[in-house]
Specification:
By secondary structure, the chain is of the alpha+beta class. It is built from 3 helices and 15 strands. It is globular.
């Protein structure tokens, strides 16, 4: 049975639980804790996650240096996994309709959005790769259009989402069921929308999002096995 490309990407995204190594912890004596780490992954202000059944929200971060969280107690482990990003797929209109019906932003983002339609190019029977899938995938998070300038948007949205994108591509490269990734293209998507000579003309989604776009050909080997 051929596993469809959308299901393969969904399976990969759901396993994208990235490890954060805790180098140091500082109790700020005000209900917040600053975590030193050499890799902040896609952590950004406002992100929620749980460690050892304790819920935390990120109140500030410095990329690949530290992040500050508020929570009921300190983080006492040497490392933890961030939750996998949300996965969405469909046309712009279909996905916007779905997202508009969700009021809790934490149920939307950070997101990996596979735009449809995509193209599967099937190879000859004697090829090691069953097909080459040309896909466009967006890595997006909430932006604050009213308050963020371009540097704020880079720090809070673009850089974290690029980190998430690079982790996804690295996962593809390390997957033995995926062929060699020859190349890929990345484009920043500030205020995720339609761009003309005047800049961003209109937002594509009602939800205020920024991040980056990945254009990539994924060579999928024969008899791909996944949890889907």
């Amino acid at each position: 049975m051929i596993v469809e490309t959308v299901d393969i990407i969904r399976d990969l995204v759901e396993s994208l639980q990235l490890k954060v190594v805790v180098d140091s912890v500082t109790d700020n004596a005000n209900g917040t804790y600053t975590i030193g780490t050499k890799c902040t992954r896609h952590i950004q202000t406002g992100m929620y996650f749980s460690v050892s059944s304790v819920d935390y929200v990120v109140t500030a971060f410095e990329r690949d240096v530290s992040f500050t969280v508020s929570g009921a107690s300190t983080i006492s482990v040497s490392s933890f996994l961030l939750p996998a990003p949300k996965f969405w797929h469909g046309s712009i209109l279909e996905t916007n309709k779905t997202l508009t019906g969700i009021t809790d932003m934490n149920e939307k983002v950070p997101m990996v959005y596979l735009r449809r339609p995509y193209r599967d190019n099937f190879n000859r029977n004697d090829s090691a790769n069953e097909r080459d899938s040309d896909v466009t995938i967006y890595f997006l998070c909430e932006d604050n259009f009213a308050q963020y300038d371009i540097d704020d948007s880079d720090r809070e949205c673009i850089y974290p989402m690029r980190s998430l994108l690079y982790s996804f591509v690295e996962m593809l490269k390390n997957n033995p069921q995926i062929g060699i990734i020859e190349s890929f293209e990345v484009e920043n998507k500030e205020r995720f929308g339609v761009v003309n000579s005047k800049g961003v003309e209109k937002a594509l989604f009602d939800t205020p999002l920024s991040g980056c776009e990945l254009n990539i050909t994924i060579p999928i080997k024969k008899n791909y096995q996944c949890k889907c």
